């Protein structure tokens, strides 16, 4: 499924979900919901107008902050500064996300990167979903797509901290959905499926088995083969040496493409133009 088709599908699903929710209400509640929707739309329009009026100031603030970060040698100090500054942009972020469609917004994408560095993953994914739907690209100096970048950076943190992954299982599923129909190397997609398997291992073992199988399908060296075997043994399912077929909902990138495209450094702070 192409990128445009995936975006249309997502928007259709959201619209259908909202329609079903409204249909389940009684007439009085429906009137209340309709009034709320009108008020929300009006607020979004007003927020968008205010946002456009303040864009130059926000761009200047981001320019100054990026220059400060460029002169800092410590990665940890840069991360701390991003976490400190991020709340200053919250109103701007909310205003941006209220207006769609949108052209390329590099300031917003920078803020998505900052949110990842500051471990504000829910905020980062919100921005990423909006950026992907509006065909936004990463800032200069990044070779990965928005979906691939977010997927890998988040997956590595979740894999390193199982308890953190467990607490964010639903967010991991949103990250997987974010990558549907987007270009991404197999190894990155395997990481996020492994993270999902870790998150669901105890509470939802059958779903975890499926996630681990998908991870191994994308990358036999994903690092979860033993986890899968132990889980299958726990469930008294026949373990297999090779990863069986699993449902995967994306187009994989060939090995030749991976070599041609290259890969970004693991840390987002290692890029000089951030």
Low-confidence stretches: 1-6, 241-245, 247-263, 270-274
**Number of discrete helical segments:** 13
Class per helix and strand makeup: mainly alpha
Rounded Rg: 21 Å
Distance between the termini: 33 Å
- Write the element-wise H/E pattern from the N-terminal end onward: HHHHHHHHHHHHH
Q: How many strand elements?
A: 0
Strand content: under 5%
Give helix % range.
55-70%
Mean pLDDT: 80
Molecular structure report:
The protein has 274 residues and is mainly alpha-helical. Helix content is 68%, strand content 0%. The longest helix is centred in the first third of the chain and has 44 residues, at 27-70. The two termini are 33 Å apart. Residues 1-6, 241-245, 247-263 and 270-274 have low confidence and may be disordered.
Could you give the topology of this structure?
Blueprint: H1 3-23, H2 27-70, H3 75-85, H4 90-97, H5 106-117, H6 121-133, H7 146-160, H8 162-167, H9 169-178, H10 186-200, H11 205-218, H12 225-234, H13 255-261
Helix pairs in contact: 2-4, 5-6, 6-7, 6-9, 7-9, 7-10, 9-10, 10-11, 11-12
Quick summary of this structure?
By secondary structure, the chain is mainly α. It is built from 13 helices and no strands.
Short key terms for the protein model shown above:
mainly alpha, single chain, disordered N terminus, 0% strand, 274 residues
